[in-house]
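Handoff note, outgoing to incoming analyst
You'll be picking up this chain. Sequence as last confirmed:
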Amino acid sequence: MYNEDISVIQSKDPLLVTSYALRTVNVTTGGPYLTVVPGVNQYLPRYKVVIPNGWNNHYIAVMIRRCAVGGLRLNKESIDANTIRIEKNVFVENFEYSVIVAEVTEGEMTLESTDDTPFGLMVYGYRENNGYGFAGNALLG
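Most recent structure output, in case you need it:
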């Protein structure tokens, strides 16, 4: 079961937003984790992250301008439609963004936009009674 709620927080003042997941994607397993959520002004056009070993499932959540979705590449390939679990559109300051959640495998991963459109990246996963999550630009950027 997936939680498909998407929240948009806007402020004219600087603020720090965190996301606290009580349970990750599967409501019967997994555990809590806390993640700092990067603001739109911190989005990058390219990320290189390592998806950790030893977890049952791994996911990426991407927020990118809707007009740039076709240029999004995961390890130089389009995201496989069979791995997409959620895809919804939201409006932020007169721009339409797509929020895409896809299942990924462990190991090194590069995610980039072919036209250098900045986008947000969150990485998370779970195993029995445990979860992890981090912003893509928290490791390399």
